[in-house]
Amino acid sequence: MQELGFTCLAGEAFLYRYTEGAYLSDLLSDAMGKAEAGMLWITSQVHRNIVAVASLKELSAIVVVNERQVEPEVLAHADEEEVVILSSGKPAFETAGMLYNYLREVER
Questions:
Q1: Nearby residues of 5 by Cβ (< 8 Å), 6 or more positions away
Q2: DSSP labels for 37-85?
Q3: How far, in Å, CA of 72 to CA of 31, rounded?
Q4: Separation in Å, CA 85 to CA 29, 54, 70
Q5: 68 Cβ contact partners less than 8 Å away, ≥ 6 residues apart
Q6: Phi, psi at residue 49, to the nearest 5°?
Q7: What is the pLDDT of residues 4-41, one digit of tens each?
Q8: In Å, how far are 27, 78, 108 from 14, measured between CA atoms?
Q9: What is the enclosing helix (H) or strand (E) of 99?
Q10: Is 98 helix (H, G, I), strand (E, B) or coil?
Q11: Using 50, 70 and 90 to split pLDDT, how confident is the model at 3?
């Protein structure tokens, strides 16, 4: 994922996880209902509950967009729960497009 310009904020030891796609939503209930295990979750949410959703759904990582700042206690909680949090300086739409193209290339 370094090729995409993401910065790893938490869970660096788990970057090896295979990614099977991505889900884009800022609604936690939507991500809980629609995201599938192994997916990246693209969101602008930065509060503690994103870690719980990612852990519950066994997501490969959370990608926080728009250079939003994640509080140190959220990052510490993510490390405890073995959840990867990545940061993208791009808006959600551009981040999703980059991921789409990247994952298609990996599949080939």
A1: 88, 89, 90
A2: TT-EEEES--STHHHHHHHHHT-SEEEE-TT----HHHHHHHHHTT--E
A3: 23
A4: 19, 10, 9
A5: 44, 46, 87
A6: -70, -20
A7: 999 999 999 999 998 989 999 999 999 999 999 999 99
A8: 25, 11, 24
A9: helix 92-107
A10: helix
A11: confident
φ/ψ of 68, rounded to 5, equals: -65, 140
pTM as predicted: 0.94
Tokens of 8: 């790893």
DSSP three-state, residue 94: helix
Q: Which two tokens stand for residue 70?
A: 């994640």
- Domain 2-107 CATH class label: alpha beta
